[in-house]
Amino acid sequence: MIHRRRLRSAWDRVDSGELHRAPRKWQPWLSDTGSLTQKIELAIGQKLEVIVLRDCRQNLNSDESRYFHFKIKRCRVREVLLCVNNIPLVMAHSIIPSASSSGSNHAVLRLGKKPLGAVLFSKKRMHSSARPLREIARLDRHSALWQKCFKQYSALPKTVWGRRTLYSLKGHPLLVSEILLPALQHY
Q: How far apart are CA 134 and CA 123, in angstroms?
């Protein structure tokens, strides 16, 4: 009897118990339900610098596409480094479907060097009271996201922890993956 392997994601729901596999120093960052940008800014006492690595349209891999029920193949992908004093603390990889950046969201998502979290956590922007889907993962060189990040940031460690959240902005989905970088441990 032949068994077909299902698409297995490296990402697990935060409440699945996987959080306890993460190093203790990363657990508060991975499990936080608020804006990671705001949490870091509170910890460091200053605004983060945003370095835009890439902001373009590209195809999604099957792991990313599953969050959109495999209906979306090509999206705007924005990759940034969140830094303090030019030291990267987080690398963010955001997937913004065309429908999510049109209409009333169009002006909002002209981000420039503004962090996406500033838009997502603005009380007047969020319309859903439902908790967003949040997952965590330990990523290594076999992960598609790790490989994408490594192309943009060659100092990426061999293994990293990250969180991925499916947000809703005025009823439209956005997928944000945040990779925690070693310098963040100092805060």
A: 19
Could you tell me if residue 72 is inside a domain?
yes
b/e sequence 34-58, b meaning 16+ C-beta within 10 Å = ebbbeebbeeeeeebbbbebeeeee
Q: Is the pLDDT of residue 103 over 80?
A: no
Maximum pairwise Cα distance, the chain: 60
According to DSSP, residue 130 is labeled S
Binding-site residue set: 78, 116, 178
Task: Output the domain CATH number for residue 40.
Answer: 3.40.1410.10
Burial class (CB in 10 A: 0-12, 13-18, 19+), 139: buried
91 and 156 Cβ atoms separated by less than 8 Å: yes
Q: Which residues are annotated as a binding site for substrate?
A: 78, 116, 178
pLDDT one-digit tens code per residue, 39-90: 999 989 999 999 999 888 888 877 787 777 767 767 888 999 999 999 999 9
**3 state DSSP class of 7:** coil
- Number of domains, the chain: 1
141: left (phi > 0), else alpha (psi -120 to 50), else beta?
A: alpha
What pTM, to 2 d.p., does this model score?
0.83
Judge whether 27 lies within some domain: yes
